[in-house]
Amino acid sequence: MTRLTTDPRRCVACRACQLWCSFSHGALTHPSRARLDIQQPPDTDVHFHPDCDECGMCARVCPTGAIESAPEARGEDS
Ligand code: SF4
Ligand code: SF4
User: Fold this and answer.
1) What is the pLDDT of residues 44-77, one digit of tens each?
2) Per the omega criterion (within 30 degrees of 0), is the bond before 42 cis?
3) Test site for ligand 1: of 1, 3, 21, 38, most ligand atoms within 8 A of the Cβ
4) For labeling, which of 4, 10, 16, 18 is most exposed (least CB within 10 Å)?
5) Is the minimum distance from the CB of 4 to ligand 2 under 6 angstroms?
6) What is the C-alpha to C-alpha distance for residues 18 and 24, in angstroms, rounded to an integer?
């Protein structure tokens, strides 16, 4: 499981994240079937849907680092 972070200022609205999300989670490869929304410029933003399973695929294909993933903290004190 990953923890996803976003930096919408780096998003260029290429929709690669939406295409790969929809491809990996369903039969239809289309932004409308993705589990995240990309708001177009000038108010670019990234929103995850409640059914996002935090697989991290979108972060792996994002070319700009607008979505990044990090291993989930275990919540243990060291
Ligand atoms: S982390 Fe969420 S939005 Fe990203 S590819 Fe996986 S299900 Fe889709
Ligand atoms: S978050 Fe990354 S992959 Fe998704 S539209 Fe923005 S730049 Fe493209």
Assistant:
1) 999 999 999 999 999 999 999 999 998 765 554 4
2) yes
3) 21
4) 10
5) no
6) 10
The model's pTM is 0.89
The secondary structure of residue 40, as a DSSP letter, is P
Taking the CA atoms of 23, 25, 28 and 32 in sequence, report the sign of the dihedral they define.
negative
Q: How confident is the model over 8-52, as pLDDT tens digits?
A: 999 999 999 999 999 999 989 999 999 999 999 899 999 999 999
Q: Whose CA is nearest to atom 4 of ligand 1?
A: 58
Atom of ligand 2 nearest to the CA of 65: 2
pLDDT for res 71 = 73
Q: Does residue 19's CB lie within 6 angstroms of at least one atom of ligand 2?
A: no
